[in-house]
Design brief:
The chain is α+β, with helices and mostly antiparallel strands. It is 56% helix and 9% strand. The N terminus is likely disordered.
């Protein structure tokens, strides 16, 4: 059993290295990202601020106290805990009985081990869950073949437990293995491969955000290829009216934003081995031509496609105006201020023509908004955040006040929360990060205007 697992592990490692690599990028000249919004901070070993959630506006009469992470649950408070524990004992007994009569590789073990692993995962016993699920996968492979689709549910559950315990290496390995198995079974043009592409792309985005892997630029490039391939297949098989189309195009824009934000990682794509492996990935998906990971242009095209969707498929004027506004935000980030103003004016006019236009305008343009609106919380320590030596994260929040210019720049940042000896270094860095961010300005009479004393609450993790 041990020798078999080692052999499988080595095989999966090879597949992981093959599928993780991303396509090389030819040198592209793109609009410069707003320097203030995209500056990367030099790591200070004494400053452990890791994440900043998207800020929440402080409005008069409202106190947006952000919920703290829930403490570990007391098993005694969970009426299902005892029931699951009893079920696990029953499954364990069933496994012993099957082994006694049918041997260690009896196909009947797969269902019992998979069910037991799922229950162990729900109990928070992730190491035990992985052991049960891993065995279920091996038994299934012995009986049904190495690349059977029957193993997919157990592996998906196993990945959740690997992520829960922070075992990024095995989470990465098995995510890529799932893609290999399903790509082999379905082929590149079967619509059943769409959720597979989406899931693997999201994993690469997650791995990038936690800083896992030696080639973070390859993560972004691979994610962008997979999102684009999935969006193309949705359009071909189901049409743009399919609800998945918007999500996939938004994810293309999200990956493009990160490509633009971290150009230093894109240098990795010049390596010959990266070009070769990404060509293999592209060819396996029947993607024509060389797909170069791009920032500005990829995001612009994706956001234009979303606008087209709302123009053609949706009757919601507000959704269309919001999509146009998101494109305006994109232009503002890349210093195309005139183009941004034109999009804001168009969205403003669309809403103004509605019966409840003033209310809709206030909803979309009444407050400054951090942009792009689809970005994820900021990870400030990308290179070290996956370090297994780091224990559980703690969080707190602070209130800031600042001005926002017509070009989205943040000025005159003031800390409203109390600064103490314990939080001084964290709040100083939080203030610096706020100053380097970008916000959509308020829009009045169709034009962006400067606004002073905007008050927001930030939750930060350290």
């Amino acid at each position: 059993m041990r020798a078999y697992s080692l052999k499988t592990s080595l095989s999966l490692t090879f597949l992981s290295s093959l599928l993780c690599l991303s396509q090389s990028s030819a040198q592209q000249v793109e609009p410069e990202v707003e320097a203030g919004a995209e500056a990367e901070q030099t790591e200070n070993p004494g400053n452990r601020l890791l994440y900043i959630d998207l800020p929440v506006a402080l409005e008069e009469g409202l106190d947006p106290v952000l919920p703290r992470p829930l403490p570990p649950a007391d098993p005694g408070d969970d009426p299902e805990f005892v029931r699951r524990l009893d079920s696990i004992r029953q499954y364990s007994s069933a496994v012993d009985s099957i082994e006694l009569t049918g041997g260690a590789w009896d196909q009947a073990l797969v269902e019992e081990l998979s069910a037991m692993g799922s229950l162990q995962q729900q109990q928070g016993e992730h190491v035990e869950a992985i052991e049960s699920l891993n065995r279920a996968v091996h038994v299934n492979r012995i009986n049904a073949g190495l690349h059977t689709l029957e193993q997919v549910p157990a592996i998906e559950t196993m990945i959740d437990s690997y992520i829960a315990i922070g075992d990024w290496q095995n989470a990465d390995l098995y995510n890529n293995y799932l893609f290999f198995v399903q790509r082999k079974a379905f082929g590149a043009d079967d619509p059943r491969i769409i959720p597979v592409l989406d899931k693997l792309a999201n994993w690469h985005m997650q791995a990038f955000n936690i800083g896992y892997g030696e080639s973070l630029g390859l993560r972004l490039s691979t994610a962008q290829i997979l999102f684009k391939a999935a969006a193309r297949m949705v359009s071909v098989h189901f049409g743009r009216a399919d609800e998945r189309f918007i999500d996939l195009k938004t994810n293309v824009a999200r990956s493009a934003y990160l490509v633009a934000r971290y150009p230093e990682y894109m240098v990795e794509l010049d390596r010959p081995e990266a070009r070769t492996m990404e060509d293999l990935l592209r060819e396996s998906l029947n993607e024509e031509g060389r797909i170069v990971p791009r920032g500005f242009r990829s995001g612009e095209v994706a956001l234009l496609d979303i606008i087209d969707f709302y123009n053609e498929e949706s009757g919601s004027v507000y959704d269309l105006a919001e999509a146009i506004t998101n494109l305006g935000d994109w232009y503002l980030i890349f210093k195309r201020r005139q183009a941004a103003q034109e999009q804001y004016a168009q969205a403003y006019q669309l809403l103004l023509d509605q019966d409840n236009g003033e209310e809709l305008i206030k909803q979309l343009f009444g407050l400054v908004v951090p942009i792009p609106t689809f970005r994820l919380p900021t990870n400030l320590e990308k290179a070290t955040s996956h370090d297994p030596d780091r224990k559980g994260l703690r969080s707190d929040y602070a209130d800031l006040s600042f001005d926002v210019t017509t070009s989205g720049a943040v000025r005159n940042v003031r800390m409203l929360s109390e600064i103490t000896d314990e939080n001084a270094s964290l709040l100083n860095r939080l203030r610096r990060e706020a100053r380097l961010s970008m916000f959509r300005p308020k829009v009045v009479d169709g034009r962006p205007v400067r606004s002073d004393d905007n008050q927001y609450r930030y939750r930060y993790w350290y």
